[in-house]
Amino acid sequence: MSNLSNIGVAGLAVMGENLVLNMANKGFSVSVYNRTNSKVDRFLEGRAKGKEISGFHSVSDFIGSLERPRKVMMMLKAGSVVDSFIEQILPFLEKGDIVIDGGNSNFHDTQRRVTYLEEKGLLFIGTGVSGGEEGALKGPSIMPGGSSAAWKELEPIFVPISAKVADGSYCCSWMGRGGAGHFVKMVHNGIEYGDMQLICESYHLMKNVLNMSAHEMHQVFAKWNEGELSSYLIEITSEILAYKDKDNTPMVDSILDAAGQKGTGKWTVIAALDEGIPLSLISESVFARCLSAQKDDRVEASTILQGPQLNYTGDKELFLNELEKALYLAKIISYAQGFNLMQEASAEYNWDLNYGEIARIWRGGCIIRSAFLDKITEAYQRNVNLHNLLLDPYFKDKIDQAQTSLRSVTATAITHGIPVPCHSSALNYYDGYRTARLPANLLQAQRDYFGAHTYERIDKPRGEFFHTNWTGEGGDTTSTAYTK
To answer: 291 and 329 in contact (C-beta within 8 Å)?
Structure first.
């Protein structure tokens, strides 16, 4: 047996440690390094003891312990830390060696690093790893992209350490060149933001409109998890609502209502703006977290600003049934927007993303894993050129069944003063998307009036632009047309 390790992992925070243990448990030998040497020692003496894991205190020894082509996986904080570590290991690498970034890096940084290292004869992979602490240990969803030549070396490691679902398939697949892997992971996280906010809005309506107890809500979410909404997030929501604090009160009621975020949701929204894609639901989920963080302002405003004081008089079970359908439809719309963003980015960066495959590898290991993703895979199997998930026959049928419920739930929330930014955004997107003629004709007239931005005409071919001298004093000079 060779004394050289199959792969090296730098960074022994919770994700790094668990990923190393996952690799070792699957029969791979792993070298580990951490800037704080004591973390290496504690790991070797603790969780890694007795496993084929070797620890090193210097970068040179760490790199030297790896079989060729060397495979160095960084589980580091995104940003300058990654660039700094790359510079540290460069002197010890040789042509054909592979550097892997398994953190949540911005895809633009990954694009840059692929080019930078390929120019030096090295290969770079930016891979999304989703599943949190448990997923890293037991099998995450893995989304690698970057230098294509590296995949044949990494596939034998990445596939078996990924999550395995009921049909025997693994939740790992090659995404594409450049920053494709990290872009897909970024969109995954954006969709995760939307899923979580939609669930929270449903919880808010149950609690503040139906006056349900945490135990009653626990039962509802547990029931929902047995149906079309079956997912990891619905499952853990049910468990959270059942969990008791030390005084036997619901733990959830003791948690401050100020949400945190690490930035991937924001990056998704920025990418949508850059690509000109209406990612309205996910955008609202990010802003909902921002609003929640303004806790002190909200507490003050609650003593000054008034809303409706209504008691719900409708049928509770009927409303819960409508809420379940509304949540499912809003979820469909959120994913439709997310996949639309990936389609636009794939075309711009020549990634050739496989959307059915992306949905397939999200079925296990990752945070948004759900039965729902099977339906997305099937939709792209039916039509690889599907422009929007809402146009697929299965999802169109679900929309027909549930849109009345989404309208009813949104109306109830509005009349009772309960904020549902993601549910209402889903409805607005749906109504906008299905409308053949929007009022943007007036908007274009306004832009042309004050800025000579021009407009297209319904009686002329697309791509021909016109300008009207609205005041008689503007002349014929026009501004440059742009769309994003």
So the answer is: no
Q: What are 44-51's contacts with CB under 8 Å, separation 24+?
A: 47/17, 47/21, 48/20, 48/21, 48/24, 51/21, 51/24, 51/25
**How many Å apart are CA 124 and CA 179, to the nearest integer?**
10
CA pair distance 182, 79, nearest whole angstrom: 13
In the structure encoding, which two tokens stand for residue 214, read together? Answer: 């945490």
User: Hey, what amino acid is at 166?
Assistant: A
pLDDT at 476 over 90: no
Q: What is the pLDDT of residues 201-236, one digit of tens each?
A: 999 999 999 999 999 999 999 999 999 999 999 999
Q: Which one-letter DSSP state was computed for residue 252? A: G
pLDDT over threshold 60, residue 1? no
CA 67 remoteness from chain centre? 34
Q: Looking at the DSSP assignment, which residues form a beta bridge with residue 101?
A: 74, 126
Query: Any catalytic annotation for residue 118?
Result: no
Record the tokens describing residue 35, joined without a space.
């800037």
27: left (phi over 0), alpha (psi -120 to 50) or beta: left
CA distance 336 to 355: 11
Segment 196-200 long-range contacts (CB within 8 Å, at least 24 positions apart): 196/233, 196/285, 197/284, 197/285, 197/288, 197/289, 197/421, 197/422, 198/285, 198/327, 198/330, 198/331, 198/334, 198/422, 198/423, 199/233, 199/234, 199/237, 199/327, 200/288
Give the active site residue among 17, 39, 153, 185: 185
Quote the pTM value.
Answer: 0.94
Residue of 192, 284, 322, 324 with catalytic role: 192
Measuring CA to CA, how many Å separate 470 from each of 346, 451, 452, 467, 480? 40, 11, 9, 9, 18
Concerning whether 300 is annotated as a catalytic residue, the answer is no
Confidence band for 184, pLDDT divided at 50, 70 and 90: very high
User: Is 147's pLDDT higher than 80?
Assistant: yes
57 alpha carbon, distance to own chain's centre: 35
Per-residue pLDDT tens digits for 393-444: 999 999 999 999 999 999 999 999 999 999 999 999 999 999 999 999 999 9
In sequence order, what E strands does 171-276 have? 176-177
* C-alpha Rg value of the chain to the nearest Å: 25
